[in-house]
């Protein structure tokens, strides 16, 4: 293969089924009909989502697909009567499934995303929406053309703190925002790398469809460590920007109604977790936005004293956000002398139920595909900057081909 043919082949393979043009309509749902749901990729996060979907009234979880037999056995023991498949396409063939939840590893999201819509199903797709920018373009187009309900697994979009932030910003309490600081710190005991999971003894070539996991990446012998710890390697992962920054960036983008970043810069490295991983454990990202705003995100895996938070710094007031806690507001007395500090009270919504409600109403969910797209671009621009060791503009990032290693 020439380099060009190889690149084209790899690109197509990474994007999933090449020609996806038909979007059959879903079965017509009456207000009292039960909604039938399937899941693709039911590992750690998939099991959380499985518990969540089973709590939503009038929903039946009827099928799941996973390439690893252990996951199928777990689902069968948890959900009586569930149908299980090793090939997700058999699940998508089921005509009586209305919606599909995708919680596969990042590098397979785009394939599962596009094929689910092509099968005429509504979609809940875990974040980050895709592994690369060209895949994000394809998924955005597929979602728009399909007319299906697409919720991205950015669950903080359903938080009461976001409702309060939007309202207070709209009411002029915050003024002009030129800077946002966000941060996320974790720690792990000495000798145990953050994110590293043990490989179960039944994780063997016989019990796993390794080729389906590779999803077009160069073929190689079965590697159970990479299957279980895909997060540590660029060809499957987007590192901590894709795992965690995306949640905070999406929240900030929604609060301030920010478009895609115009440029990104990221520094850091593998400084604390020297276990052979490729993705950095220590990160400083700067994202520039066209509306006079700069957002920073800092993250370390070797100190959690300050935990996780976002500070929106406005000329007239400050918003401080910690996940799962009420939003806090302080006035800048010089510009808002009569302002009072306040704590938010808006309730959180159930992100999964919001998806199901939208399947019934055909409304737009709290984390729509456009937000999945913008937040994915922020992730990929930051990672491209880090990997190319330069400030990355939106135009340059969009012109680049994804690399597997
Ligand atoms: N929203 C959140 O707060 C949140 C939290 C954690 C993880 N996530 C996201 O959820 C996704 C999954 O993460 P995880 O920690 O559960 O990973 P995981 O490795 O535990 O689970 C992935 C599952 O997908 C299966 N799989 C792999 N290739 C497949 C294929 N081709 N077809 C079908 N199944 C396949 C694996 O066997 C595994 O069971 C990631 O995108 C991650 O970023 C989101």
Please describe the structure with a list of short key phrases separated by commas or semicolons.
405 residues; alpha/beta; Rossmann fold; Dihydrodipicolinate Reductase, domain 2; 2 domains; 9-stranded mixed beta sheet; 6-stranded parallel beta sheet; 13 helices; 15 strands; globular; binds nicotinamide-adenine-dinucleotide
3D architecture notes:
The protein is 35% helix and 20% strand. With 405 residues, it is of the alpha/beta class. The protein folds into 2 domains: 3-156 and 353-369, 3-Layer(aba) Sandwich (Rossmann fold), CATH 3.40.50; 160-193 and 234-347 and 381-399, Dihydrodipicolinate Reductase, domain 2 (2-Layer Sandwich). The strands form 2 sheets. Strands 14-13-12-11-7-10-9-8-15 form a 9-stranded mixed sheet. Residues 40-46, 65-68, 71, 88, 103-106, 108, 126-127, 153, 155, 212-213, 215, 243 line the site of nicotinamide-adenine-dinucleotide. Nicotinamide-adenine-dinucleotide binds at residues 40-46, 65-68, 71, 88, 103-106, 108, 126-127, 153, 155, 212-213, 215, 243.
């Amino acid at each position: 293969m020439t380099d060009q043919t190889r690149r084209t082949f790899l690109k197509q393979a990474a994007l999933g089924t090449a020609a996806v043009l038909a979007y059959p309509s879903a079965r017509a749902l009456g207000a009292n009909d039960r909604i039938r749901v399937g899941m693709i990729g039911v590992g750690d996060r998939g099991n959380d989502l499985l518990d969540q979907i089973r709590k939503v009234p009038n929903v039946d979880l009827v099928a799941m697909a996973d390439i690893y037999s252990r996951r199928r056995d777990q689902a069968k023991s948890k959900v009586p009567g569930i149908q299980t498949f090793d090939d997700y396409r058999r699940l998508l063939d089921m005509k009586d499934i209305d919606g599909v939840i995708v919680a596969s590893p990042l590098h397979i999201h785009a394939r599962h995303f596009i094929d689910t819509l092509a099968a005429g199903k509504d979609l809940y797709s875990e974040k980050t929406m895709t592994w690369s920018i060209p895949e994000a373009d394809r998924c955005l187009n597929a979602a728009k053309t399909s007319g299906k309900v697409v919720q991205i697994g950015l669950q903080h979009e359903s938080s009461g703190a976001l409702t309060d932030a939007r309202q207070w910003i709209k009411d002029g309490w915050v003024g002009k925002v030129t800077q946002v600081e966000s941060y996320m710190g974790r720690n792990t005991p000495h000798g145990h790398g953050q994110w590293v999971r043990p490989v179960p003894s039944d994780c063997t070539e016989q019990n796993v469809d390794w080729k389906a996991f590779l999803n077009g990446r160069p073929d190689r012998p079965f590697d159970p460590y990479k299957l279980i710890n895909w997060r540590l390697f660029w060809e499957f992962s987007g590192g901590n920007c894709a795992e965690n920054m995306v949640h905070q960036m999406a929240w900030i983008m929604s609060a301030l109604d920010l478009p895609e970043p115009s440029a990104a810069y990221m520094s850091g490295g593998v400084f604390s977790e020297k276990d052979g991983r490729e993705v950095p454990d220590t990160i400083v990202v700067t994202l520039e936005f066209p509306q006079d705003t700069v957002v920073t995100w800092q993250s370390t895996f070797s100190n959690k004293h300050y935990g996780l938070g976002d500070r929106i710094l406005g000329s007239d007031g400050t918003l401080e956000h910690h996940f799962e806690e009420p939003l806090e507001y302080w006035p800048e007395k010089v510009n808002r002398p009569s302002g009072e500090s306040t704590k938010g009270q808006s309730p959180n919504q159930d992100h999964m139920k919001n998806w199901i409600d939208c399947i019934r109403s055909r409304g737009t969910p709290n984390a729509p595909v456009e937000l999945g797209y913008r937040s994915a671009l922020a992730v990929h621009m930051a990672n491209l900057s880090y990997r190319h060791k330069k400030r990355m503009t939106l135009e340059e990032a969009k012109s680049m081909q994804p690399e597997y290693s």
